[in-house]
């Protein structure tokens, strides 16, 4: 009998500027995760994958997984390792856990991700983030911090497809308003279109609410098989139906599209993930996409196939990303408003999709049976997609 | 009094270095930087399959895995396709305005290359402007050479600047 991976439960700590050590954040996330699955005890968990990128940089700790295991009282026997895919680390760890439980090499795996980015002096955070892109070839040009790269991306989208600043602002408004009632979000204030349009400039055309914040935080979830999950929970099973991770370039000079707003690698990742999940874009009822910047979400709804290429701006500003729209996107607030502690983000997204499919999300999409998570990482150098569903792939 | 923290004793931490370590003792693409010191912008070409790549590779051709590579010159002039200017809040180590541009050097694989634009005040650059290579010195790397002591390996890096009209 085949083993099908499911996400059994998950949780996150409060994200933001946290007065805590990275290992405090992992403990808070681990507790939130197990609180979500009352029957599950630490001793039941046989594997741990820790997603973090800046442990070893902003917090001085490499080989992070055994440290997290000890702090959480876990004694892994199948896997205990760390994974670094920057912004996609959490989703990558979920993909790896899926492979381990479906192949029978693990039974119950905790996937935990987290970052403590704020150092006692802030210059070190910004300086260290220069390590996020190609160190020798792109960071020295001042491209390490992502806003300039996505500012250029937005210009290419404006020039080639006629989208405009109002479309970007519509994404900020939607995601901030989703997060306004989310108690663990970094930003918990409603935002008006006027506020978004009049925000201070960061890198033209991006302004304050176009950019996700720098975030301390952690999240954790449990990946296991459907048969094991039934012993611990009466909730609907949420299957990991299919996934893909695509990397066609690292340096932007080798960007695979015709310009920076043409995300060929996203389309390829979607095509492969949909094929493996046996769905099409029109089956997706709710999505958590990588809104590191508003322009990212505009392009993602196009290249994930929710609307035609070039119409992402109109799709967002006509509220198709909000509850009642064609595909509600980033229903917990996304990276823009919940925050973005890199390794934790994919776990936060997967947990939100799980809640949507189980009918217990804060902003519930009625009848959601298929959902997806998407991440880009680095200077738009890699795309990671996971498709979740209430039924296994047959 | 020592605090036991090397950075406080004025040592050089490579892990906090923004610039590439370019010396031949640490990097097989050192000829790129040697060429750059001569004002040449170069990359590697595979002598077996003819593939021209960027960035240059120190060991193999990514297409055919041949180790038979040679350095060739790239154009040192190009055109600005798009750009954005960071005026406030530029990262540590940079001067305002920090101008980022996608430029076209006119040859593959450098038709859409992201670079910093230097020697240009804010509000002056336009799309389509011609830019040229600008090479500048960056702080040297101290390298321990056994009994010979510590040498200072000189370094350069590149950006592009407007061609004066």
Describe it.
The complex is a heterodimer of chains A (394) and B (165). By secondary structure, chain A is α/β, with parallel strands linked by helices. Chain A has helices spanning 22-35, 64-71, 89-102, 123-128, 147-161, 165-179, 193-197, 226-232, 264-277, 294-303, 312-317, 334-338, 342-358; strands at residues 5-12, 47-51, 79-83, 109-115, 201-203, 206-207, 217-225, 239-246, 286-288, 370-377, 382-389. Chain A has 2 domains: 5-122 and 215-232, 3-Layer(aba) Sandwich (Peroxisomal Thiolase, Chain A, domain 1); 143-211 and 241-389, 3-Layer(aba) Sandwich (Peroxisomal Thiolase, Chain A, domain 1). Chain A contains 13 helices and 11 strands. Chain A has a 5-stranded mixed sheet, sandwiched between helices. In chain A, strands 8-11-10-9 form a 4-stranded mixed sheet, sandwiched between helices. In chain A, strand 2 (47-51), helix 2 (64-71) and strand 3 (79-83) form a beta-alpha-beta unit. Chain B has 165 residues and is mainly beta. Chain B has one domain. Chain B is 5% helix and 36% strand. In chain B, strand 4 (98-104) and strand 5 (113-117) form a beta hairpin. Chain B is flat. The model of chain B has no long low-confidence stretch (mean pLDDT 94). The A-B interface holds A 123, 126-127, 130, 134-145, 147-149, 151-152, 155-156, 159, 201-205, 251-255, 259-260 and B 16, 18-20, 54-55, 82-86, 88-94, 98, 100, 102, 109-110, 112-116, 138, 157, 159.
